[in-house]
Structures are given as structure tokens and as C-alpha cells.
Amino acid sequence: DAKTTQPNSMESNEEEPVHLPCNHSTISGTDYIHWYRQLPSQGPEYVIHGLTSNVNNRMASLAIAEDRKSSTLILHRATLRDAAVYYCILRGTSGTYKYIFGTGTRLKVLA
Amino acid sequence: DTEVTQTPKHLVMGMTNKKSLKCEQHMGHRAMYWYKQKAKKPPELMFVYSYEKLSINESVPSRFSPECPNSSLLNLHLHALQPEDSALYLCASSPPDAAGYSPLHFGNGTRLTVT
Q: Cys-Cys link to B88, which of A46, A49, A100, B109 (CB 3.0-4.6 A)?
């Protein structure tokens, strides 16, 4: 199964950009890269996903390396409500629904 | 609020009890998932149903028994659990997209404590 590696924790100041990295060196050519976040006492929440090209939505941007072995989730202006655990996910086996979570990065936002 | 509803929110059960967790979605999704999450750990995949058929079982002990009675409902039947099974049980759903394009929609989970 394709695995992802993320830093355990990161800190950011409020209203500053945050770059959350994820390594996925064993990614297959057809695997989408998904990002989710989990606020305390809630289930994971979808943030963004992409395949090869960089992606933007109202929550964040996703930058994907040209070789697809890493990606970066970008929060353009962190707020206190963005404090959460951020997970980078790949599908484990091509053609199945096997979505495997990485270890996640706990983001702390400082006021 | 999420579009995936899980009940109950909290459950305490003894090791000899039988209980069930319930998950419901009305988004027309045909893939449904059970994940288990221990404190400060990422969710671990347990089961996946696709079109009401079990497609993935991640070698989960038989004391956990999933059931998908229709396209909107997913149950997890629990019997003879151990204290180490205490965890947050998360349900998710997605459109039937084996290509991996569609995002997962999660409920807020059932917090299970086994005494």
C-alpha cells in the first residue's frame, strides 16, 4: 500500500501562510492525493485533492511536485479555527476504495 | 453538522454485551466505510462496502461484524469486545468511484468504551 509521511506537528502565527508537507514516494501513477483535517471531537473533514496539477479551492491550495512524490497543503492565512490535525491520504491499492491515512500533522495556530 | 449521521454518539458496553453502531447517509453514495481511531492516532480502515457488498475487510477480528442492509445504512455489530477495542469509530461514504477521485464524507463518530 502506498504510504505517506508527514511531520508530527507544526506551528504558525495567526494570519500567516502555512505550508504543510507530505511525502508519498511510493505513489502510483493513478493515485489521487487527498487532504483532510480533523478538528477536536469531530470526524475528518475533506479539504482538497489533486492528481498532477496544483489545485485551489476556498479552503486551501495543493501544490504537487512534478514527480508526484511529495505535495504541500497551503493555508493562505491561518486562523485559530484552522488548528487541527491535517492528514494526507492516498488510495492504498489501485482500483479499490482503500484510503490509507498518514500519521498526520498537528497544526497549532498562535494568536 | 455532517451529512453522515452516526448513532449513538457515545456507547459504554461490557465485554459480554452485544451492541450495534449505526451510520446513515442520504447523498446517494454507494461506497461506505468503517474506520477505527485510537487517541492521538490516525483513523485505521476496517471495512469497505461497495454497492452493499463487502469489498474490503482489513483482517478485522470477528467480534466486529459489519452489515449494509441498503444503500443508505451501514451497521457495525459488536460482540464480546475487549477493553483495547475502546476507540472512536468513524463512518464515511463516497460516490462509487474506484479511481479515487471522489472525497470521503465522514460522520463525527461513535465514542466506544468497553469496560
A: B109
- Give the pLDDT of residue B77: 98
Chain B residues whose beta carbon lies within 8 Å of the beta carbon of residue A103: 42
Tell whether A99 lies on the interface with B, counting CB pairs under 8 A: yes
Name the nearest CA neighbour of A59 among A86, A95, A29.
A86
Q: Would the CB atoms of B48 and A97 count as touching at under 8 Å?
A: yes
Residue B89 contacts A where some CB pair is shorter than 8 Å: no
Residue A83 has φ and ψ, to the nearest 5°, of: -65, 120
Q: Of A44, A92, A97, which is closest to B106 when you measure between CB atoms?
A: A44
Tally helices (H) and strands (E) across chain A: 0, 10
Q: Check CB contact under 8 Å for A101 and B2.
A: no
Instruction: Provide the pLDDT for residue A92.
Output: 59
Closest residue of chain B to A50, computed from CA coordinates: B101
Give the 3-state secondary structure percentages of chain B, helix then strand then coil, rounded to 5: 5, 55, 40
Q: Give 10-residue mean pLDDT values along chain B (115 residues).
A: 90 95 95 95 95 94 97 96 97 81 92 97
Distance CA A59, CA A31 (A): 22
